[in-house]
Amino acid sequence: MVVSSRAVEFQESYSASIRGRQDVDIVPQVSGRITRLCVKEGEQVKTGQVLAVIDQVPYQAALRTAQANVSAAQAKVETARIELQGKQALFDEKVISDYELSLARNGLAVALAELEQAKAQETDARNNLSYTEIKSPSNGVVGTLPFRIGALVSPGMTQPFTVVSDNAEMYAYFSVSENKLRQFRTQYGSIDKMISQMPEVGLQLNDGTFYGRKGRIETVSGVVNATTGAVQIKARFPNPDRELLSGTIGNIVLQGVDADAILLPKTATVELQDKIIAYRLRNGKAEAAYLTVDRLNDGNHFVVKQGVSVGDTIITEGVGLVKEGMIVTPKNVTP
C-alpha cells in the first residue's frame, strides 16, 4: 500500500460535566427554625420568590424593641435640646458659666448620637426580620430541600438550604490536552477564531443518547492544569425544555474535517506495549515506523499524525510476522 492523504471526517469525544448557567447556593442570613416551606424540589422559581420562612416571632420582637429604643432616644434628644435652650438663656444673662453651657451642648450631642445608634439598630432588626423569608436571588429551578419544617438553620451551616439552578442555558465543561489545543490554534489561527469558527458540538448523555440540540464553544481557559496538562473548555447549550439537569455528566462530541489526513487500516499495524508500529519498505527491506495516531471513530482505521509520509510503501498483510530488516517482495502495491 502506497501512503496517500485525503480529506476525512473525524469525531472525538471528551468527558464533560454539565452545569447550569448559574448554580446559586442558598444559605440563610439569620438563624432559626423553619416554619414554612413555600416551594417543592424541581419547581421553577423567579427572582425574589420566597422559598421558605424562618420563625419570625423573635425577630418581630427584636424589631419592636428597636423601634421603642428609637422613640426613647428621640425623647432624650428633645429633652437635651430644651435643656440646652434653657442653659443658653441663663448664660446670656450671665447666670451660669461657659462650662455649664458646654455640658448642655455635649448632652445634646450625646443624645443625637444615641438616636443614630438606635436607628441603626432598628434598621438591622428590620433587615433581620426580612431575612426570615429565604428568597431566590435568580430565576431557576429549585434543587433538593434537605431541611424540613422545624429544622434549625443558620448562616454558618456547611450544607446550603438548597441550590437554585438557572438552567435555561447549560454549560458543558470538558478538557483537551495542551497538544490538542495547539492543533486547534494552528488550524484556526488563534483561540478567538477557534471559538467563533469552530462547528457546533454535540452532547452525548450519560445513557448513550444524544441531546437534541447542538452547542457552541464559548470559552477556552488560558491556564493549563499543572497536574493533568489539560485545558478546560466551556460549551453552551440551549435548554428551553429543561431536559438537561445541572450536575449531570456526558460527553462532548467534536466533529470536523482533516483535509490532508493519512489513513491506515488497523490491520496494517501492530501494537507492542504502548507503541503502534507499521512496516514500510526501504530498499526491499522492512523498516519499523513508530506511529503517532488519532483513533478514527469507525474503529477500523488510524489517522496517522507522525511516523509515515505520503509516498511510503506500507506492508498491509501478515504484519504480525514481519521483523525489522526482513527482505520483502512487494505485491499488488496500491495507493
Notes on the protein architecture:
- By secondary structure, the protein is α+β, with helices and mostly antiparallel strands.
- The protein folds into four domains: 9-21 and 168-257, Beta Barrel (Elongation Factor Tu (Ef-tu), domain 3); 28-55 and 132-159, OB fold (Dihydrolipoamide Acetyltransferase, E2P); 56-131, Helix hairpin bin (Helix Hairpins, Orthogonal Bundle), CATH 1.10.287.470; 260-321, conserved putative lor/sdh protein from methanococcus maripaludis s2 fold (Beta Barrel).
- 26% of the residues lie in helices and 38% in strands.
- It has four helices and 16 strands.
- The strands form two sheets. Strands 1, 3, 6, 8, 9, 10, 11, 12, 13, 14, 15 and 16 form a twelve-stranded antiparallel β-sheet that branches. It has a four-stranded antiparallel β-sheet with strand order 5-4-2-7.
- It starts with a strand and ends in a 29-residue tail after the last strand.
- The model has no long low-confidence stretch (mean pLDDT 91).
What is this structure, in a nutshell?
The chain is of the alpha+beta class and 335 residues long. The chain contains four helices and 16 strands.
Question: Characteristics of this structure?
Answer:
4 domains; 4-stranded antiparallel sheet; MdtA-like_BSH; alpha+beta; 12-stranded antiparallel sheet; OB fold (Dihydrolipoamide Acetyltransferase, E2P); MdtA-like_b-barrel; 335 residues; RND_pump_MFP; Elongation Factor Tu (Ef-tu), domain 3; Helix Hairpins
Mean pLDDT: 91
What fraction of residues sit in β-strands? 35-45%
Q: What is the name of the CATH architecture of the largest domain?
A: Beta Barrel
Could you spell the SSE succession in H and E letters?
Answer: EEEEHHEEEEHHEEEEEEEE
Number of helices: 4
GO cellular component, one term: cell envelope
Protein name: Multidrug resistance protein, AcrA/AcrE family
Domain Multidrug resistance protein MdtA-like beta-barrel: 170-254
Pfam families: Beta-barrel_RND, BSH_RND
